[in-house]
Amino acid sequence: MRNLIFEEPDNKVQDYASSQLRYAWESIRAPVIIPLLKLAVILCSVMSVMLFVERVVMATVCAIVKVLGKKKYRKYNLDAMKQKLHRSQRYPNVLIQIPMYNEKEVYKLSIGAVCGLSWPSDRFIVQVLDDSTNPILRELVELECQKWIAKGVNVKYETRKHRNGYKAGALKEGLEKQYVEDCEFVAIFDADFQPDADFLWNTIPYLIENPKLGLVQARWKFVNSEECIMTRLQEMSLDYHFTVEQEVGSSTYSFFGFNGTAGIWRIQAIKDAGGWKDRTTVEDMDLAVRASLQGWEFVFVGDVTVKNELPSTFKAYRYQQHRWSCGPANLFKKMTREILLCKRVSIFKRLHLIYAFFFVRKIVAHWVTFFFYCIVIPACVIVPEVQLTKKVAIYIPATITILNAISTPRSLHLLVCWILFENVMSLHRTKAAIIGLLEANRVNEWVVTEKLGNAMKQKNNTRPSSSSRLSRFRILERIQIHNPFTIIKSIHPLEIIVGMYMLHCAIYDLLFGQDHFFVYLLLQAGAFFTMGFGLVGTVVPN
User: Fold this and answer.
1) What DSSP element (H or E) covers 424?
2) Which of 17-26, 93-102, 437-446 comes out lowest in average pLDDT?
3) Is the pLDDT of residue 472 over 50?
4) What is the pLDDT of residue 448?
5) Which burial class, exposed, middle or buried, applies to 496 when counting CB atoms under 10 A from its CB (0-12, 13-18, 19+)?
6) Cβ atoms 215, 291 nearer than 8 A
């Protein structure tokens, strides 16, 4: 027995297993792996070029619009329209909807901001659509409404015994109330949005002046972009969405996707489009596309901003991105035929909707980011027979990245972090887009984005002032977690698996490669591990 314990281990079995794996790899490498990888490189290169062309075209249009001063809303004389409205005293009736669901931290902010809007008090109705399941919170929201009613504001507190249709269902039922019949316009604000007092004065004149206008969309202003590095990176992505995508859509096609909040609709446009529908998780985009097909025009007013909150917990952000990626893909599948057969709008606008708005931005952008930069390029490192040109592997991605990042000049020093972050999130978005296209499980999953509101403000106020500057760039803020299973729930296996794959490719390139791809691969693997273990964003106690 003593001899057995101290006997040298037999390596024959290990050597045999290794040789078998090596033989299996070599047997499929040439006939299977290399052809498939070459095909993947071709497909991903085509998608990269599609995304590159779309980004360059939008950047060019945006630059021309800015240099020539051709922003669509600038052709209107807002001051003259306001004066005309003042002289006529014909103020239209406006409905303001605030849909909410268990918004404990922010309901007072949104209700207070909306009730403080500058507009004749007898000409607007505030409709609080409360789908909260917490009875105590419902009482608190109703008390807040009663407080403003006592101040002379026309507030209607509406609840439902169900959540059918989620947000779309609440908005639809809100428009069906009898007191809404006299309203001509409806403004919508999510529960964390706080419009300035002059919001209606800065938006309604456009709708009065142009009877073809169905929607006026304002820009979002983020009150917690300094909360953590994750919110700074979100700000970079969303700034591009507003500065480029919506500005270009407004100035060239009179169309862009409604953001679901901080906008004001002509109620007739909603009716012509068939009303709110809950067939996808992007009811706002669904309504915008259908209204556009009916011939209604949209305008984006970038000078009007509405304060709101970015999701600062990684869990909330993942749920939001699933909804924002799955919903458009699902809507693309449902509406492609309807868009193609619509004769009311030009073929040019229809092709723009299908190709640029849906296919390139909502499908290709996610797929090429994940499959090319996180799967195919690392695979080419361990299969050197497949060559990547610098134009496709470096120059095109670099150009796309720079065009995205210049919308937020103050965060250019975070460019590398933004690239790594977006590449990791592309896995989650790609999976969601595939679920939407296939209408698989979770296709209609609706999870309200968690807002921290005053809770985070109170917590921030307790921090020593000496650490305030460092806190701006923290990756993780840990608060005492009382439930030990919270850490386990924050682990994301797919991200960790991809991180291990990229780490393997990085080590292989470091040992045997002739290029320096291992630098990128090591950084990207670290990002996958960091986010795979949930070490990003703000963590709050249950």
Assistant:
1) helix 415-438
2) 17-26
3) no
4) 79
5) middle
6) yes
User: Is 222's pLDDT higher than 50?
Assistant: yes
Report the distance separating Cα 322 and Cα 332, nearest Å: 15
490 near 314, Cβ under 8 Å? yes
Strand pairing class (94-100; 124-130): parallel
- The Cα–Cα gap between 68 and 63 comes to 8
Residue, of 28 and 468, whose pLDDT is higher: 28
The pLDDT score that the predictor gives to residue 13 is 61
**Cα–Cα distance, 187 to 199 (Å, whole number):** 10
Q: Which of 131, 192, 239, 278 is catalytic?
A: 131
β-partners of residue 128 are 98, 157
**416 contacts: CB under 8 Å, gap ≥ 6:** 523
Spatial CA neighbour of 365 closest among 484, 478, 241 = 241
What residues contact residue 335 under an 8 Å CB cut-off, 6+ apart? 286, 289
Query: At 539, is the pLDDT very low, low, confident or very high (cuts 50, 70, 90)?
Result: low
pLDDT tens column, 72-100: 888 888 899 999 998 988 999 999 999 99
Residues 114, 154 contacting (CB under 8 angstroms): no
Task: Give the global pTM.
Answer: 0.88
Question: Which one is catalytic: 130, 196, 278, 284?
Answer: 284
**Rounded CA gap, 228 and 235, in Å?**
11
Cα torsion through 158, 159, 162, 164, rounded to 10:
30
Distance, in Å, from the CA atom of 489 to the CA atom of 492, rounded to the nearest integer, reads 8
Give dist(CA 105, CA 192) in Å, integer: 9
* Helix%, strand%, coil% for the chain, nearest 5: 60, 10, 30
Max intra-chain CA distance, the chain: 105
Residue with more model confidence, 362 or 453: 362
User: What percentage of the chain carries pLDDT values higher than 90?
Assistant: 70
Angle between helix 493-512 and helix 415-438 axes, rounded to 10 deg: 130
Q: What are phi and psi of 537, to 5 degrees?
A: 85, -170
For residue 9, what pLDDT is reported?
Answer: 52
Q: Where are the beta strands (DSSP E) in 401-526?
A: 476-477
For residue 210, what are the contacts with CB-CB under 8 A and spacing of at least 6?
76, 297
Instruction: Outline where 194-313 has alpha helix (H).
Output: 204-209, 229-240, 247-248, 267-272, 283-293
15 is catalytic: no
The helix (H) or strand (E) run that includes residue 95 is: strand 94-100
Is 303 an active-site residue?
no
As a whole number of Å, the end-to-end CA separation of the chain is 54
pLDDT of 479 > 80? The answer is no
Position 2 pLDDT exceeds 80: no
Question: Measuring CA to CA, which residue among 139, 256, 124, 272 is closest to residue 211?
Answer: 272
Query: Which has the closest alpha carbon to 256: 51, 73, 67?
Result: 73
